[in-house]
Structures are given as structure tokens and as C-alpha cells.
Amino acid sequence: MTADLGQAQHTHWQSVYQANPHMYGDQPSEPAQYAAEVFAAEGATGVLELGAGHGRDSLSFARRGFSVRALDFSPEALEQLRVRARQDGVSDHLTTTVHDVRAPIPLPDGSVDGVFAHMLLCMALSTAEIHALVADVRRVLRPGGTLIYTVRYTGDAHYGTGIAHGDDIYEHGGFAVHFFDSALVDALAQQWELREVHAFEEGELPRRLWRVRQTKPR
Ligand SMILES: C[S@@+](CC[C@H](N)C(=O)[O-])C[C@H]1O[C@@H](n2cnc3c(N)ncnc32)[C@H](O)[C@@H]1O
């Protein structure tokens, strides 16, 4: 994939959120509900969400009392999130940061208890960028902390169709997706404890996704 695709996707997502405020709705996703149970059982307090969008999931974590840091590269989405957090009275539990995950996460080593990323790792990121991101997640997690991520995989109806950008990235309707195979999931779990890979569906296509849970060894 080219650097231009990453820049084009940044522009695309910003205009999509401007045209479709709160496009993912107000209810937390099923993976976020699952993650909240896992994080609570592990005694987590500080949770990082990558690719939070307008924050349907970050808001649910904040409502449950977690201290949430929400990252996304769309300022528009994060503004929608901040407005809703004020309306819901959970601003004290939430910090937003405009950040492109192709750069290092702006947090110290071992500073968060849990990391959640719903449909972020499968964005327009090269395999090398995904590996660098997961290594950086490992850096910011405390030992024993858990990463829960979801990705569209090669069983998805859109895999292998649309505009091919190489590296298993295909674009439909302006949205570029890096479809995962099981070899990539396994490679990303090196130096982690892989706890679960769960297949599920979301939306009308439906999107076919894996929910992956892996823990940083103590
Ligand atoms: C499929 S949406 C999912 C949003 C949110 N997780 C949800 O499920 O409601 C992917 C999100 O990732 C963000 N994103 C895509 N590429 C990114 C990047 N390189 N750095 C940071 N955020 C990115 C987009 O702005 C968008 O909000």
C-alpha cells in the first residue's frame, strides 16, 4: 500500500463522520460489552481504546467507571464523543487524543490496564504497521494486561473484491480494509498469551470478524 492511501483514508473518515454524525449508534458493540467484563474481572481501571470513532464503546466503558483514553485520527469523531460525554456526565472518566496509530502511542510504558480496538487494526495499515502497533500496545500495557481487538478476516464477502491496494487491503465505497488471515493473528500473538479467537458477524453485509483476546505475560 502507498502512503497516499493512509492520507486519503484520514480525509475520508473525517468527511464520513461530518456527513454522518454518530453513524455507529449509541449502543455499545458486543465486543465492547465482552471486553468490559474481561477488564472488570482483571481489576482494570485504565482502559485505552484505539480507533474509538465517535465513542459508542468508550462511552460505555466510562459509564462503567473505567478511566478511558480514546484515540482516533478523526478530530470530528472525537468532538462528537466529547459532546456526548458531557451530555452523559462522564467527561471526568474520559480523555480524547487525536492520533494516527501509524505513529507511536503517546503514553508511557506499562501505563494502561486494558486495550480495546474494534475494527481498527483492519484499517488501511500495512502488515508492518500492524506489527509495529501491536508491539507498541504491548509496551503501554502493564504486565498481565489484556488487548482485545476485532478485525475483518478473509472469510468476509468483501475480501478479494473492490480496489486492490496490495498486502490484503481492498477498498469498497471509499473504505479500505486490511483483511486478516489466521497466520497474521498468530504472528501478532508472538510474545503474548493468546486466550481466544472468536468469529462473529456485525452489520447488514454482514461484516465477518474475529474477536481476539491476548494478554501480556507477567
Ligand atoms: C470501522 S471504524 C470503527 C470505529 C469504532 N471503533 C466503532 O466501532 O464504533 C474505524 C475507526 O478507525 C479510525 N482510524 C482509521 N485509521 C486510523 C489510523 N491510522 N489511526 C487512528 N485512527 C484510525 C477511523 O477514523 C474510524 O473511527
UniProtKB/TrEMBL annotation:
Residue ranges occupied by any Methyltransferase domain in the UniProt entry: 47-145
The keyword Methyltransferase is assigned to this record: yes
InterPro entries given in the database record: Methyltransf_25, SAM-dependent_MTases_sf
Keywords: Methyltransferase, Transferase
Any Pfam family matching the protein: Methyltransf_25
Keyword Transferase applies: yes
Any one Gene Ontology molecular-function term assigned to this protein's record: methyltransferase activity
Biological processes per GO annotation: methylation
Gene3D superfamilies tied to this protein: Vaccinia Virus protein VP39 (3.40.50.150)
Signal peptide: none
Protein name: Class I SAM-dependent methyltransferase
The species this protein was found in: Saccharopolyspora endophytica
